[in-house]
Design a protein that fits this description.
about 180 residues, 5-stranded antiparallel sheet, two-stranded parallel sheet, about 30% strand, globular
Length: about 180
């Protein structure tokens, strides 16, 4: 296995026609179906980079920007944005295309943290990432910062560290009623 790979070596794209069976009660494609496709392409990209079985550790921020209609083509593109020792951040972009008008809409971008697993089920080291462009450096730095922010945020709100009095003012003006015991 290579020690380092470029993101181009593991890029993956799929296109799928959205069928009535993919729709929700509102007549648009169900978000859960899109999430399933996103997870599949993130797995494919991470497995291709690491040459191993991968599992989803987390999904960072899923914003549905535009609805997808039945009959549209949905294209998902995935690439490795960041590599740690055993984990990778896979950037996933979702676009829909109206086949009759040719209009393309950006529907979603999200970031999946995938962990490489060995045959023994333990975390397995992944190849590092070769950064070739400014865009590669931007994506890597953004993913690293996102990872650090999540760690800080999670530790800040742990029950053993949380100090209620520091957050009472923060909650003013929110749609809550405090009835503390």
């Amino acid at each position: 296995m290579k020690k380092f790979k470029s993101s181009r070596e593991s890029r993956v794209a799929i296109t799928e026609l959205m069928l009535p069976s993919h729709s929700n009660f509102g007549g648009k494609v169900h978000g859960g179906h899109i999430l399933n496709l996103m997870d599949q392409i993130a797995f494919a990209c991470a497995s291709k980079h690491s040459q191993s079985y991968c599992v989803t550790a987390s999904v960072n921020r899923v914003d549905f920007l535009n609805p997808i209609d039945v009959g549209e083509l949905v294209t998902l593109k995935a690439s490795i944005n960041y590599t740690g020792k055993t984990s990778m951040v896979v950037g996933v972009r979702v676009e829909s295309e109206n086949v009759t008008t040719g209009e393309v809409k950006h529907c979603n971008s999200s970031y999946f943290t995938m962990v490489s697993k060995g045959k023994d089920g333990k975390n397995k080291r992944v190849p590092g990432l070769i950064l070739k462009t400014k865009q590669d450096i931007r994506r890597f730095a953004r993913s690293k910062e996102r990872k650090q922010s999540a760690f800080h945020r999670d530790s800040k709100y742990e029950s053993t560290n949380f100090k209620v009095n520091e957050f009472l003012e923060f909650l003013e003006g929110e749609n809550v009623k405090m009835d503390l015991d």
